[in-house]
Amino acid sequence: MVRTPTRAWSSVTATCRGGDEPPRRGDRKSVSSRIERACLLHLGDLVELEHPLNVQYLPPGVSTYGDVFQRAARAQPDTKRIWFAKLRYTIAPVVSGTTMRLATFDREFLVDRSGWRPSVISEFDDELAVCLDHVGKEWPSANGMIDPFVYALGEMERPAGPVVVRDHRLICIAVRERR
User: Fold this and answer.
1) What is the secondary structure of 30-43 as a DSSP string?
2) Nearest by Cα to 176 from 153, 141, 142, 152
3) Residue stretches of the chain with pLDDT short of 70
4) Do residues 77 and 155 touch, judged by C-beta distance below 8 A?
5) pLDDT tens, 123-157?
6) Under DSSP, is residue 134 helix (H, G, I), strand (E, B) or coil?
């Protein structure tokens, strides 16, 4: 059976895949569904940067897509945002114990999975592998029009360190295919 990647991964993909409307006030299905939908809209350039976006766990005043989403290369210590970067699909994720390191073109992402259930770790690993394999196979024929991205609501703990994410609901892996 050949598997193709889903549009994105998060812990509640079944409740939010296929949704293409911006999150609305009072739409509280879950934190991760809001993050996933917002990430997919951001990745697809489907919203203006001034469009309002209210995300739980972010400080007051961070209230638009332009405020919420920041390139990982700009990450500063003790600043929470949804950081994003293009994954380096040719470099396999490095797993050591309960941590996974994801190589990107901007900054490393450290996924601390110590509090995750084994089934969630397995699902995440499987979906990540499917996405990276798909990009690797499609890259030659896609003329560079396909890219894997990681989005994570996290922060840096030290200057020049990785973006750290600990909650499985706060990370999203997505593949962008431009036509």
Assistant:
1) -HHHHHHHHHHHHH
2) 142
3) 1-34, 179
4) yes
5) 889 888 888 888 888 887 877 788 889 999 988 88
6) helix
